[in-house]
Design goal:
By secondary structure, this protein is mostly helical. 82% of the residues lie in helices and 0% in strands. The termini are far apart.
């Protein structure tokens, strides 16, 4: 089965399931208020983390360093804000995990290591070579 199709159907189904379960425990109105509250708090913290990441990136640029971590971190903060806007508890949990610098760094390092391992496997079939000129042929030209 296509993984995109599974995400497209699975995540909303999980969100509805969690809303029904939590709504049964705390009530429908409290569930709706909790969803709005997590969205507002999450977006506020996404803004703060985004500003912090921008400052860190600018400092790296002033030091003539490439702000690679800050770019990836900024993208993950934008993704976290998107997850926090989507109503639901599962996406809010993922969004808050992406906002926390410690867990964000773990997730970024995990995906970077995964990508570098794939590149190492692709580079197995590469042959390195060296071109050596023949001095006699060069003198003839």
């Amino acid at each position: 089965m296509n993984s995109f199709f599974l995400l497209f159907i699975g995540v909303p189904a999980l969100e509805v399931f969690l809303m029904i379960k939590i709504g049964g425990k705390i009530g429908a109105l409290n569930t709706v208020l909790l969803i709005f509250l997590t969205a507002m708090i999450g977006l506020y913290f996404a803004k703060l983390e985004g500003i912090k990441t921008m400052r860190s990136g600018v400092m790296n640029l002033y030091q003539n360093k490439i702000p690679i971590y800050e770019m990836v971190s900024g993208a993950s903060i934008a993704l976290a804000a998107l997850f926090l806007i989507i109503p639901g508890f599962f996406t809010d949990t993922i969004g808050f995990l992406l906002l926390i610098p410690f867990s964000r760094k773990i997730l970024i390092n995990f995906f970077i290591k995964k990508k570098t391992n794939q590149k190492k496997q692709e580079d197995v079939n590469v042959l390195d070579g060296e071109i050596i000129e023949d001095k006699n042929k060069r003198d003839e030209l």
